[in-house]
Write a structure and sequence with these properties.
Elements lengths: L2 H30 L6 H18 L6 H31 L16 H7 L2 H31 L7 H9 L6 H15 L13 H29 L3 H9 L4 H12 L1 H16 L3 H6 L6 E4 L2 E3 L6 H11 L3 H32 L1
Antiparallel strand pairs: 1-2
């Protein structure tokens, strides 16, 4: 090894050591909540030093792989910072008394015990599951019917596709306030000149209506893509064999768009589980519930995402909110995996 190579290797090792020390120190400062002002700069300098050390390391065997890793690193780093690290920190904070700024100690499973003994939270879980089941069915049925309409030979078909998709482009907060005005001032009142949003049942139904109106057009486009990919000669052959429209739909079209159905059910499930903005803008979770676990509740239309937000932000219980978010993540992941496996099995059968 010549002097130039030895010097480059020493510089590389120095950069790696400095980078690791600065990165670890910055992460420790952030986790401990000491609030050191320099921790952000230390993290950036540490990561750059590590990348520089890897780039300067004098090895011919792995140098190409190191260069490839450096180019991929920005994406991996962004994913780690925005997803992996917050998830790991969230699990850690859920076992502590973290108040959003700092923590004084670990509390074990106290947050989870408090969560499962809270009737308001359990009610939010219950109506969220009910909301998901109803919308998985209704959104996909409405979207598929719209897709059938938008794949027929009628005039101005492009206009209809754009019109059905347009509600999906409106932000959920704006959409909620617009429909709140419609329900409160335009539609017929519920009883005795009281808004339909004042009662839990009608308000929950109103959220479902708004969600379907917003999301069905997006799901429709996926079904339209699947239907237009069906070979025309297959449909012509079915007509020659005497198949009517209903038989063609259930025996040919639906089996041939099985992959589109899997995608649409997965998207509908995850989106309905994460419903937040429309729920917040339309009712803000309000609604009276009597007799649930022997309690009187005032969060009759508050779904799980909004419950977590209110726990952490409104009530300033960040550790408890984080525990609820962990349960939310586990529940959503398990349900999504089960749904995809069942849908894939149905695809093979179809």
């Amino acid at each position: 090894m010549n002097a130039n190579s030895a010097g480059k290797k020493a510089l590389s090792i120095l950069c790696l050591i400095v980078g690791v020390v600065l990165t670890v120190t910055a992460l420790v400062q952030d986790i401990s909540g000491s609030g050191a002002a320099w921790r952000g700069a230390a993290l950036i300098v540490g990561v750059v030093a590590i990348l520089l050390g890897l780039y300067l390391f004098p090895t011919l065997k792995y140098h190409r792989g190191i260069i490839n890793f450096i180019f991929v690193f920005p994406l991996l780093f962004t994913f780690a910072v925005t997803v992996i690290i917050p998830l790991c920190l969230g699990v850690f904070y859920s076992f502590s008394d973290w108040n959003g700024i700092q923590m004084s100690g670990m509390v074990g499973f106290a947050n989870y015990t408090s969560m499962f003994s809270d009737p308001a939270f359990l009610w939010s879980v219950l109506i969220t599951i009910l909301f998901v089941v109803i919308n998985m069915i209704l959104v996909n049925v409405v979207a598929f019917l719209l897709a059938l309409l938008c794949t027929t030979k009628i005039r101005a078909i492009g206009f209809f596709r754009a019109a059905y998709f347009l509600p999906n482009l409106i932000g959920g907060i704006v959409l909620g306030y617009v429909w709140q005005f419609v329900f409160n001032n335009v539609l017929i009142k519920y009883t005795n000149n009281i808004s339909i949003l004042a009662a839990t049942g009608p308000a929950f139904a109103a959220i479902i209506v708004v969600y379907i109106w917003q999301y069905a057009g997006y799901i429709m486009l996926i079904y339209v893509t699947g239907l237009t990919q069906i070979p025309g000669d297959v449909l012509e052959a079915s007509q020659i064999d005497g198949a009517n429209a209903v038989t063609t739909l259930f025996k040919i079209k639906l089996p041939m768009i099985a992959s589109s159905i899997t995608i649409c059910t997965f998207l509908t499930l995850t989106s309905a589980f994460k419903q937040f903005d429309v729920n917040m803008a339309l009712t803000n979770g309000a609604g009276a519930v009597t007799g649930f676990m022997g309690k009187f509740l005032t969060n009759g239309t508050q779904m799980l995402a909004l419950n977590i937000y209110n726990t952490a932000i409104s009530k300033n219980s960040y550790a408890l909110g984080q525990a609820k978010a962990i349960l939310f993540f586990v529940l959503l992941a398990c349900v999504s995996i089960i749904q995809v496996r069942i849908s894939n099995k149905k695809e093979v059968e179809m």
